[in-house]
Specification:
mainly alpha
């Protein structure tokens, strides 16, 4: 899987959409990545069953 920031950059630059939608998308991606990192380092036990990739 490619790095989330690369995918986000590609979406932001090459897919035309309203600024509000881009902002919401960016916030959602950041939240998902933070939650995934917390679970990866064992700081978030409730997502321990979640597998990415």
């Amino acid at each position: 899987m490619e790095h989330p920031s690369v995918a986000l950059w590609l979406i932001n630059n090459y897919i035309p959409m309203d600024g509000k939608i881009k902002t919401i998308l960016n916030v959602v991606v950041v939240i998902v990545v933070v939650l995934w990192l917390l679970s990866l380092f064992g700081l978030l036990g409730s997502l321990s069953g979640l597998r990415v990739g």
